[in-house]
Amino acid sequence: MAEWKKLNPAQLEAVEKIYGPLLVLAGPGTGKTQLLSARVAEILQKTDVGASNILCLTFTESGAQNMRERLRELIGEAAYDVTISTYHSFGSDIIKNYSEYFQNITTERSDDLRMERPIDELTQIQIVESIINALPFDSLLLSARYYVRHVVSTISDLKQHLISPDKLRKLANNNLDQIDKAQKLIDDIVNSAGGISNKKAEKLAQYQSLLNGLSDLKGNLIELATAKLSEAWDKASEVNSPTPLRAWKDEWMPKDENDHFTLTDPDRSRKMLELANVYETYEQELRKRAAYDFDDMILRAIDGLKNNKELLFNLQERYQFILLDEFQDTNPSQFELVKRIADHEVHEGKPNVMAVGDDDQAIFAFQGANVGNMKDFLNAFSDVHVINLTENYRSHRDILHVARNISEQIEDRLHSKLDDKIDKILTASSANLPDNASIERQEFGAEASEYSWIADKINQLIKSGTKPSEIAVLAPRHRILENLVPFLRNIEIPLSYEKRENILETEIVKGMRLNVLLLEALIDNDTAKINEYFPLVLSLPYWQIEPLHIWSINWGLARQKDATNWPELALKNPKLKNAVNFYLMLSASAVTDPLELTLDKLAGTIPVENASGCHYAPLKEYYFAPGRRAENPLKYYEAISHLSVIRAHLRDHQASSEKQLSLQDFLDFFVMYESAETPLINSHPIAQSADSVQLMTAYKAKGLEFDHVFIAQAHDDIWGSGSRGGSNKLSLPPNLQQIRYVNTSDDERRRLFFVAITRARHGLYISSHTTKDNGKVNLPLKYLNESGGKSAVLPEANQTINSVDLNPQNLAKDIETLWQAGQIFLPADFRALLANRLKTYQMSPTHLNTFIDMERAGPESFLVQTLLKFPQAPSPSGEYGTAIHNTLEWYQNSLNSGSKPKLNEVLKRYDIELDRRYLSKTDRDQARGKGQASLQKYLDSRTDMFKNPAKTEVNFYSEGVALGDARLSGKIDRLEIDDKSKTVRIADYKTGKPLKKWGSDMKSLKYAQQLYMYKILVEHSHTWRDYKVESARLEFVEPDNHATGSVLQPLYLDFNDQEEAKLKTLIQAVWTLIQSLNLPDIASYDKSAKGVKAFIDYLSKSET
Question: The domain spanning residue 1012 has which CATH number?
Fold first, then answer.
């Protein structure tokens, strides 16, 4: 295979050694991506296992997607049979696919609007807060109600490190026992003497006695204290000073309330005892709700494997070969899941597991990653073979020289602890680099001057022929990158960066909150609040009301002593009347409407209706009219994005709630985030063009490479030991602190700096500034080893630090530019903003029907609803249909598993499904009666159909269906498959008024198009590409007439090769338009079936 010829000897060894445990140390740029794909191909070529017997796990969804794409290039369609997943998705899939082993968890369909599990962070905070508030008044944890989020975070840390409530309780009790044992020793040596002596000889004698005495005691807390004291003793001897011993005392021997020294703070362990109870109650509450949190996606899967041998053996039998990517980024629970599946006795401790990682690039400790897993891999299995990849195909030798000098400062490195010593020095092996690298070290007097230089240097590189997209500016924090934006904007350099905003503070979301505050005040008839909120709401920009009209009402209210109601006065003003009436009408319906329906009315998506007609809020027209997109693509995109994020979080919260959310819940949602001091961050990419300079954090840059890399603000408090992350207010005992990321390790920061450097191919520019805005001096980054105007870590020819003198005139101009940061207007290319979505987009039958639907704005509706995901509550008819579909799916799956539910069980299931839907009480009651009657008649009339097994809700997302360039997906309600004849029959359930025969109307056109596309999906899929669709039919669940009618016979569609060819042409035409965002003008087409057909003809001709 040609791919094998590209591999160097170490890579080839890793590919060919397919049996037994293998740890591959893959430094940056050493080609691990092709190694992983080639190894899968080798396994399939050299063994008798199928692709479905291979499990590949990685850290991110994008990593999983890239691995599958790479694998498809090598082995073709078989790539879709390999399980490629993130660790959490894999754990979740185990729970969902083997739900019979997880009866204490409710597993919901992934497309369910109110998918119950896992619960969202806000619900976690609510549950834990309620538990803490119920603690007795003398509880040590009662004060934690002021930092509940820290308690939730600690529980997450415990889970990731496989520490259950019982284990935590045992650890805390053992700690308290050890503290008591050590107390007599400390009393005899220290407290009885009035403390540690000031005389050196006596002081050293006390510490020596402590060391000897502690060494005779048992317990991991005491052993840790002893080890640390021994280290301090050795260091004190080395430097001939007791200072290290004093540092040990300050850390390990605090004073208690009696002014006596004690071994550690016992209250920390006592708090852990109480935390164990809180943790246990939290777990009980989750089980009561049949729910699980994000960490449980791994832990519950582990418990399932531990307690169900049948499940364990099935998974062990299935996954004969396991590949683990980015292994340095995993946490202990993730590795435990892998060990369980790999640990079949037939392997005798030598499973076929390959882990690929690089401890020098372990930068995600703040997400729970534990670099210690790489060392644990060596201990978990027998005869682990280690392969070291050192040929770097990315960077110039001078860049690697800098990287080596940084990595060698990392103290905790895996290769130095191996029995067989290996060398991790990277060698430059790329033949496509210039002879000389460009490496510069620049220092400026002020921050603004540094940014100005970076922008000018980037401009020079672009003018000399470098593509903007081959230039990156890296920093550990977003703020640094955002400050550079106005400098690049001023010289018209296109840029891309990930903008992060607290959407609770954005104009459109704050406006929505004000609207709901007003509605609540109107519902409660709270005059004071009505008078407060009405002028604020009508001052929102989309009402476009002149302030004078609002002020006049405020003045009138103040002048007229008997006037107490703001809206009464406002109704007399013609400029305010319509707006005031809108809120008065909406407050009446909002009492019973579901929250999302009210939010839709506030957004202007649907009208408020009364006898006088339909009344729309102007928000949607103001922010999202098609002309707005052309005027300001970025503002248009961000406004939709903010509304989508807030609605998505509300839906997550709804999924975890026992009741339907109300207007008050919406307001409480804001208060809970504010009380937890937690911003609701919306991160979204901003791209001015497809070829833009990349501004990103070093974390985000991992796995990427660029010709030129700028490292900004190389200061100790940014990249080095002076930088600090947020602290957790719930202090841990010393022998538990390893579970928590505290951002205090120099090694962690060196690794991040190493990652930043190794993104560069041949250009590296490190800059800093000497003075902060407040006049304080920036400490230099010690990792650069700078003195005498030189940086010793750089190649000899590039070591000089170029210090730039301040020019007052230029500085003033640069400071003015810096002040613009955060307020700069960025023109953006709309397609570039949507580039990531378009890259992963797959067209479904629903999407195609939306695109050609003239009645609902066609292409414009597709853009807003499908691509931009403008938030909108599901319709009552849609929710009713989903409940029917889910019930029929459950019924067929039950039949497939050998049990036949009775009618009362089916109706009970329908009630459960209906209660999960987003419906008002009136709509729910109506749907309950209608649905139960329909299901009873339908099941009675379709007995023969349900005698046969069928696949339900078949998802084609991972089937790799392509039609030319178009990537297709979709879900089919029911597939009846005959493996012997290799034929498939398609059935699609429909609710609503049945279609008795095919016609030329809009409904017929959409239904037929849908069935044709289903046929294409099946016959072009990986799984059924050798099958032929024999028939397709519509199954109308509701009777022709609810009162007296019967269920109609299925409506079959006779496939026609010519019609199918037309549809394929249409799909490719629409795909091309979507990818280019070239949406056709439909103004000239009738909003009818005739107009749609004319539009389809136009689109099809444009493709040919």
Answer: 3.90.320.10
* Strand 353-357 to 495-502 pairing: unpaired
Distance CA 433, CA 753 (A): 23
Look up the domain containing 680 and give its range: 504-684
Q: What is the pLDDT of residues 988-1024, one digit of tens each?
A: 999 988 999 999 999 999 999 999 999 999 999 988 9
* List of residues 6+ apart from 159 with CB closer than 8 A: 295, 296, 299, 333
Cβ 466 vs Cβ 458: under 8 Å: no
Residues 696 and 776 in one domain: yes
3-class SS at 977?
Answer: strand
CB within 8 Å of 788: residues ≥ 6 apart: none
Number of domains in the chain: 5
Peptide bond into 859 cis (omega under 30): no
Pairing of strands 966-968, 961-963: antiparallel
Q: What is the pLDDT of residue 13?
A: 94
Residues 974, 902, single domain; the answer is yes
Judge contact between 987 and 974, C-beta under 8 A.
yes
Residues 910 and 1046 in one domain: yes
Rounded Cα distance, 848 and 1067, in Å: 7
Q: Are residues 694 and 771 in the same domain?
A: yes
CATH number of the domain where residue 744 is located: 3.40.50.300
Is residue 12 within 8 Å of residue 380, measured between CB atoms? no
What is the tally of helices (H) and strands (E) in the chain? 43, 27
989 neighbors 1035 (Cβ within 8 angstroms): yes
CA distance readout (Å), 470 to 433, 437, 761:
14, 15, 10
Domain identity same for 1047 and 929: yes
Positions of E strands within 467-517: 471-475, 495-502
Report if residue 719 sits inside a domain.
Answer: yes
> For residues 881 and 877, what is the distance between their CA atoms, to the nearest angstrom?
6
Q: What is the pLDDT of residues 257-266, one digit of tens each?
A: 889 999 999 9
Give me the residue label for tokens 């080395």.
238
The CA distance from 569 to 527, in Å, is 13
Pairing of strands 608-610, 613-615: antiparallel
* 1078 phi, psi to nearest 5 deg: -95, 85
488 and 509 belong to one structural domain: no
Contact 163, 280 (CB under 8 A): no
In a domain, 995, yes or no: yes
CB-hemisphere CA count at 13 Å for 1032? 22
The Cα 165–Cα 159 span in angstroms is 9
Query: The whole model's pTM is what?
Result: 0.81
Least confident of 668-672, 820-824, 962-966, 1091-1095: 820-824
pLDDT score recorded for residue 557: 82
In a domain, 693, yes or no: yes
The phi, psi pair for 730, rounded to 5°, reads -95, 100
Q: Identify whether 425 is part of a domain.
A: no
670 & 692 share domain: no
* CA atoms within 13 Å, Cβ hemisphere of 1017: 26
Q: Say yes or no: 447 and 556 in one domain.
A: no
Chain centroid to CA 918: 25
Give the amino acid at 483: N
